[in-house]
């Protein structure tokens, strides 16, 4: 990648990246035209940048979101990490269309993603995410590992939780629809009188 692109990806000015090149701290070379090309920038950058990821399922849990970030920041400080990003999201762990998580997972400049529980990252497919990130030399650190240590039980609990949430959500919408119908019927009785 060009030196200017490299500078943008690590969040420094072009002049600073030029100084890195001149000092010999970058694996880079200069072409005949004068363009500086940086080799293997993912490994150079990813090893040092750390991101914190916190998630809750609903808006009424936003206070827990702030507490999660506080715990993650404390953990990162204890490990001596310099945190580059703190990402918070309000979405279901079963929802695979979470834009903030997708942006974090596709950002090659982030080397370590720190989460409180593996369920905060995703309910299903956690090991697939770990495998894909490890190919890029990136990792996920879970600060509170699961106590069950039985993937089948964890998956079963996740499925039951998901089904209950959907069932209760449907029941709530059914109750709201009944109230609207009752209000409309009451309104039509008043108009007919």
Which helices and strands, and how do they pair?
Elements: H1 3-10, H2 14-23, E1 28-30, E2 36-38, H3 41-46, E3 50-56, H4 62-79, E4 83-90, H5 99-105, E5 112-115, H6 118-121, H7 126-135, E6 139-142, H8 151-192
Parallel strand pairs: 3-4, 3-5, 5-6
Antiparallel strand pairs: 1-2
Helix pairs in contact: 1-2
Feature tags:
two-stranded antiparallel sheet, alpha/beta, elongated, Rossmann fold, four-stranded parallel β-sheet, 193 residues, 3 domains
Summarize the structure in words.
With 193 residues, the chain is an alpha/beta fold. It folds into three domains: 3-39, no CATH class; 46-142, Rossmann fold, CATH 3.40.50.1390; 148-193. It has helices spanning 3-10, 14-23, 41-46, 62-79, 99-105, 118-121, 126-135, 151-192; strands spanning 28-30, 36-38, 50-56, 83-90, 112-115, 139-142. The strands form two sheets. It has a four-stranded parallel beta sheet, sandwiched between helices. Helix 1 crosses helix 2 (14-23). The longest helix has 42 residues, at 151-192.
Q: Kindly identify the CATH topology of the largest domain.
A: Rossmann fold
What CATH architecture of the largest domain do you see? 3-Layer(aba) Sandwich
Q: Return the CATH class of the largest domain.
A: Alpha Beta
Radius of gyration: 24 Å
Q: Supply the number of helical segments.
A: 8
Mean model confidence by pLDDT: 82
**First and last CA, distance:** 77 Å
- Low-pLDDT segments, ≥5 res: 41-47
- Strand content of the residues, in percent? 15-25%
Largest sheet: 4 strands, parallel
Number of domains: 3
Helix content: 40-55%
